[in-house]
From TrEMBL:
<dbReference type="InterPro" id="IPR014052">
    <property type="entry name" value="DNA_primase_ssu_euk/arc"/>
</dbReference>
<dbReference type="GO" id="GO:0046872">
    <property type="term" value="F:metal ion binding"/>
</dbReference>
<dbReference type="GO" id="GO:0003899">
    <property type="term" value="F:DNA-directed RNA polymerase activity"/>
</dbReference>
<keyword id="KW-0804">Transcription</keyword>
<comment type="similarity">
    <text>Belongs to the eukaryotic-type primase small subunit family.</text>
</comment>
<keyword id="KW-0862">Zinc</keyword>
<dbReference type="InterPro" id="IPR002755">
    <property type="entry name" value="DNA_primase_S"/>
</dbReference>
<feature type="compositionally biased region" description="Basic and acidic residues">
    <location>
        <begin position="1"/>
        <end position="12"/>
    </location>
</feature>
<keyword id="KW-0240">DNA-directed RNA polymerase</keyword>
<keyword id="KW-0235">DNA replication</keyword>
<keyword id="KW-0479">Metal-binding</keyword>
<keyword id="KW-0808">Transferase</keyword>
<keyword id="KW-0548">Nucleotidyltransferase</keyword>
<dbReference type="Pfam" id="PF01896">
    <property type="entry name" value="DNA_primase_S"/>
</dbReference>
<dbReference type="GO" id="GO:0005658">
    <property type="term" value="C:alpha DNA polymerase:primase complex"/>
</dbReference>
<feature type="region of interest" description="Disordered">
    <location>
        <begin position="1"/>
        <end position="22"/>
    </location>
</feature>
<dbReference type="GO" id="GO:0006269">
    <property type="term" value="P:DNA replication, synthesis of primer"/>
</dbReference>
């Protein structure tokens, strides 16, 4: 595994940026210490006319009764450890029961209650609890040494986390410094492109640099994406190792007037990311269809101002380009402007490098060359909410939940077709509930009864994708491992 960070980091840059977060809305929850209060309450946000349409207790009831994939979630999160299989070789029968779940429930419209440290022996208990409580939101925590529901009766020095998927949370609110179309919780198809880019870079990095195989991405339901890395090696990572993996992917993107201090001998991960990101930067960011950073004078002057100061003054490139691009006769497209800017930088740096290698010009030309990379990263590189990844016991919203504000299902993302993902086309709660009725009307009651409910709705393709590319291959791998253990045990017994 490669844990070396691609960035030379100063101590004061190590702290991850924190963002203000709304517990009811967001995926992150403070890590309460074991033994801390289980139930917290806060006034619920007033229902807007919008969420009155997309989300209601009645619709949610139907969803938990007929559509939430309890068995699939159990199959996934038990990792082959079945209560039913008892003490069979390799089976840890109470594995699922040591997982922390948390529910956000809303007993009255004015109140929101958040219940931590719940745990369920098996799929039946889990299903019954969700159907009884009707949580607005379900969060998944770590697997502990003991069932979390017993945490008050267990000595705190023996109650601790044992394992947890390595998770990543990427949220469009962290892109407010670069997106010009929306801010805060608002999103549009323009800024959603950032999420596609982030998924591509992270997915490739996690599989190529860390060798992870069992990974799955989800739409968070509103303005971001979540990644769950489920390989055994990932689940067993200590908090320090998690921080190292997360930090490996982190770049200091915040201050646009400050160099990222990247080495000119760029880390292979960053070289690879650049190959993914620069074409998207050109296609989706610089033009009018994106953030427009090379479409009008105000924007390009802002960008040109970020060129290294020494380079800017010694070459006059910024002023020259601004003059040319501002002419009423200039017909250059943003793509042509970017190409021209790069070409000018390369020409100027070659000229400067031709002079003495030891003079200050060579330093400025190096930083000007790196400016091209930094600019692309600044505008496209994944912005992780790094705190979510660092701790085993950080809770993350459960896949297949319904987002109470949008009514959208947290569905898996097809990473191979990520560019065609449209967050506004994600099935909503009223839609899928209506689809159940429509299916019955079209096919008749008897025929409809034979088909699993999720297959009658527009959740179908994403659930199938989840099964085919993630859950089934992982189950096969676990079964094979279990069989190998049994075979080895049988061979040892045969020796006696
Ligand atoms: Zn937007």
């Amino acid at each position: 595994m490669v844990y070396e960070s691609p960035v030379k980091r100063k101590a004061n840059e190590m702290g991850a940026p924190t963002r203000s977060s709304d517990i009811a809305d967001d995926m992150e929850i403070e890590n309460a210490k074991a033994g801390a209060a289980v139930v917290t309450s806060k006034p619920a946000a007033a229902a807007t006319p919008q969420n009155a349409v997309v989300f209601s207790p009645q619709l949610l009831r139907v969803y938990y009764q007929r559509l939430f994939p309890f068995q699939m979630m159990y199959d996934w999160l038990s990792y082959g450890n079945d209560w039913e299989k008892g003490s069979e070789i390799g089976n840890e029968r109470d594995f699922f029961g040591k997982r922390e779940w948390s529910f956000t429930i809303q007993p009255t419209p004015q109140d929101e209650i958040y219940i931590r440290y719940q745990s369920f022996k098996d799929c039946a208990e889990f299903t019954a609890a969700v159907q009884k409580r009707q949580p607005n939101k379900i969060d998944i925590g770590a697997v502990f040494t003991h069932p979390p529901k017993d945490h008050n009766t267990i000595k705190s020095d023996v109650f601790h986390t044992k394992e947890r998927e390595l998770v990543f949370d990427i949220d469009l609110t962290d892109y407010d410094g670069v997106r010009t179309c929306c801010s805060g919780a608002n999103i549009c198809r323009k800024c959603w492109k950032y999420m596609n880019m982030a998924v591509k870079v992270m997915d490739e990095g996690l599989s190529k640099d860390f060798g992870f195989k069992n990974m799955v991405w989800f739409y968070s339901g509103r303005r971001g994406v979540h990644c769950w890395v489920c390989d055994e090696s990932a689940r067993e990572l200590s908090n320090d190792a998690r921080s190292a993996v997360a930090t490996y992917f982190e770049l200091p993107l915040e201050n646009e007037n400050k160099s990222m201090d990247l080495s000119s001998n760029l880390h292979p991960m960053l070289v690879r990311a650049f190959r993914v990101l620069e074409p998207q930067f050109i296609a989706d960011i610089i033009g009018d269809n994106g953030m427009g950073i090379l479409t009008n004078q105000k924007s390009w002057v802002k960008l040109l101002k970020t060129l290294p100061e020494g380079f800017r003054t010694s070459t006059g490139i910024a002023a020259e380009l601004d003059r040319e691009w501002s002419k009423p006769t200039c017909t250059k497209s943003p793509t042509q402007k970017w190409a021209q800017l790069k070409q000018k930088i390369n020409q100027a740096t070659k000229k400067q490098q031709g002079k003495s290698a030891a003079n200050t010009d060579s330093k400025t030309s190096e930083s000007a060359e790196m400016w091209i990379y930094e600019t692309v990263y600044r505008h496209t590189y994944p912005r992780l909410d790094i705190n979510v990844s660092k701790m085993q016991n950080h809770l993350l919203k459960s896949p297949f939940c319904i987002h109470p504000k949008t009514g959208r299902v947290c569905i898996p993302l097809n990473t191979k077709e990520i560019d065609s993902f449209d967050p506004f086309a994600v099935p909503t709660l009223p839609q899928i509930v209506a689809e159940l009725d429509e299916y019955e009307k079209t096919h008749g009651k008897a025929a409809a009864a034979k088909v699993p409910d999720w297959q009658k709705t527009s959740m179908k393709s994403s659930v199938q994708y989840f099964l085919k590319t993630f859950l089934n291959p992982m189950k096969t791998e676990i079964r094979k491992k279990r069989q190998d253990m049994k075979d080895r045990e049988a061979a040892v017994m045969g020796d006696f």
